[in-house]
Amino acid sequence: MKTIKFLTLSILAIFATAMSFAQTADELINKHIDAIGGKDNWKKVNSMRSEATLSTQGIDIPVVITQVHNIGMKQEFTVMGMSGYSIIGLDGGWNFNPMQGQQKPEPITQDELNIGKEQLDLQGEFLDYKEKGHTIELLSNEDVDGTSCYKLKLTRKSGREATYLLDPKTFYIIRAISKLTANGQEIESTINLSNYQKLPAGIVVPFTMENNMLPAPINMNKIEVNAAVDQSIFKVQQ
User: Is 57 exposed, middle or buried, given 0-12, 13-18 or 19+ CB atoms closer than 10 A?
Assistant: First the structure.
């Protein structure tokens, strides 16, 4: 009986693997883009303002993220009455964290700036990825909490790589893995994405993000698409 059981499981595993490779990377990307609102809706996204909360050690930290497509991004936070921020813009990037004793904004490293600029593509790296100079490869499925997920490897035009795991039922990205450089050292960032919700703009986005580099999940409270943004917020007056 055990032999039959193991044989059945083996056949199922082989069948699942065959099914995963029956689809090409482009087919999976198209299904993913359709699942999160479609190409037309995402092509209309030019700005996004998100209000979120990071709860840790009994403290709720409000976070506001303002983004303009391919222009800039600013993240603002307040902890125990002290406010800080980080900025990525086309002409540079800065961090200001008074909780760490900073008295004024400090420029980030070139490696950090290069990685930050990759995040300025609000419409997503999968959308028109070939025109952007990226390549995508379909790898063997990988398990995420008991679910055999499609695994896509993105190699950006810059050469930096990232891995995305797609839920086979929803085609949502549920995990993103990439290498980052911090303080001169390369570290691996793993972000789990969940609680996807559809916005009035017709796009579907995750409202919960768990990053292994943060002490607690970030939960979105409100996301506005294409609200007017004063782009001067992406510059720092030294």
Answer: exposed
pLDDT in tens, 140-178: 999 999 999 999 999 999 999 999 999 999 999 999 998
**Residue 179 in tokens:** 């290498």
pLDDT in tens, 20-41: 444 799 999 999 999 999 999 9
Place of tokens 């679910």: 147
Residue ranges of the alpha helices (H) in the chain?
Answer: 2-21, 25-35, 39-43, 110-118
Contact 20, 28 (CB under 8 A): no
Report, in angstroms and rounded to the nearest whole number, the Rg of the chain calculated over CA atoms: 20
Tokens of 229: 């943004």
Domains of the chain: 26-234 (2.50.20)
Contacts of 94 (CB under 8 A, 6+ apart): 86, 87, 105, 106, 107, 108, 236
Angstrom distance (rounded) from CA 184 to CA 187: 10
Instruction: Summarize the confidence of residues 180-208 as an average pLDDT.
Output: 89
